[in-house]
Amino acid sequence: MEAKEATRSAPSRVTREDYKATSDPALQEAADRGQAKLLSYRELYMLWERQQWLTQELDFSQDRRDWHEKFDDDERFQRMYGLSAFFIGEQKVAEELGPIMRAAPTEEQRIFLCTQIADEARHVRFFERFYQEVGVYDDSELSALLDQTSEHLNDSFGALFDEMLHSRVDRLAREPEDMEALVEGITLYHMVIEGMLALTGQHFIMEYNTSEGVLPAFVEGFQNVARDEHRHVAFGTAFLQEKAEEDDRYRAAIQRTLEESLPVADKVLSPPWAPDDEDFEMFGYTIAETREFAATCLTRRLKFIGLA
Ligand SMILES: [Fe+2]
Ligand SMILES: [Fe+2]
């Protein structure tokens, strides 16, 4: 019951000052009325300078004991879906952002996106360190870890990252002046993948581990990852709000991309082994509760953009 109570008020209970400092509309109740206040691209850059953190400072010794001594085989297996989706998701977004950065039309936007590339690289190293220090696999080399952990993913994950995102980024690499493609790319990257999927998964994973008192260094690092993601999503929201106001073609591009990708993203929220049942509960929360949280956050951001 306690977990359910926490979920119902989930978007407003994320009250950390450093999260709110990012100005992500999902963290502002006023966004329900379309009244959020966003930071400028330059202010988001300045915030990035103040919000640095080190993966190498985290001490995973209790995490290692929890993983091997507290969790049984079943629990370790069930945890692998979330971990794999994040580890590989971070690697993919880190490596796809270059063409998006280059296609962004203003200097202020490009400089911010350069900071985001550095963040995504750090997120990959964070997961790499978790796998290495905890001893998830015998291998410890990055590409071997990514390769092994990929067996836990589902087909929708591949469709979202390797088809939808990859094809748009390829188009931007060839034609960086194609503004409609950039609007589509940022809708998919910042609104759907980071805003809807990553921040939802992070919220529930951190809640569960904290309530169980397990994986403390993982939770600490993941909180920093989530703070970075709120900053990235604030950038995406500001960019899409400007473009939606500028031209109806861009509004249509945002809507089209959401319609195409949201059903796929929805499927990424549940592991391949989970039954197709909204009431199926894993790690303390049902799939329905997870979807509701994702929808509330997305709606707040879309209201700000002027699309909901
Ligand atoms: Fe990330
Ligand atoms: Fe990100």
Describe the structure.
Helix content is 74%, strand content 1%. The protein is mainly α and 308 residues long. The chain has one domain (59-305): Ribonucleotide Reductase, subunit A (Orthogonal Bundle), CATH 1.10.620. Helix 9 (155-174) runs antiparallel to helix 12 (248-268) and helix 11 packs parallel to helix 13. It is globular and about 55 Å long. The model is unreliable at 1-13 (pLDDT under 50). One fe (ii) ion binds next to helix 11. Residues 90, 93, 120, 123, 225, 229 line the site of one fe (ii) ion.
Please specify the SSE layout and strand pairing.
Elements (H helix, E strand, L loop, with lengths): L1 H7 L1 H4 L3 H4 L20 H10 L10 H10 L2 H31 L3 H28 L7 H8 L5 H20 L4 H34 L3 H31 L1 H21 L12 E2 L2 E2 H19 L3
Antiparallel strand pairs: 1-2
One fe (ii) ion (FE2) binds next to helix 11.
Count of DSSP-assigned helices: 13
What is the subunit organization of this protein?
single chain
Report the CATH C-level class: Mainly Alpha
Question: What helical percentage do the residues reach?
Answer: over 70%
Based on the coordinates given, report the CATH architecture. Answer: Orthogonal Bundle
Trace the largest sheet across and list its strands.
1-2
Structural class: mainly alpha
CATH domain topology: Ribonucleotide Reductase, subunit A
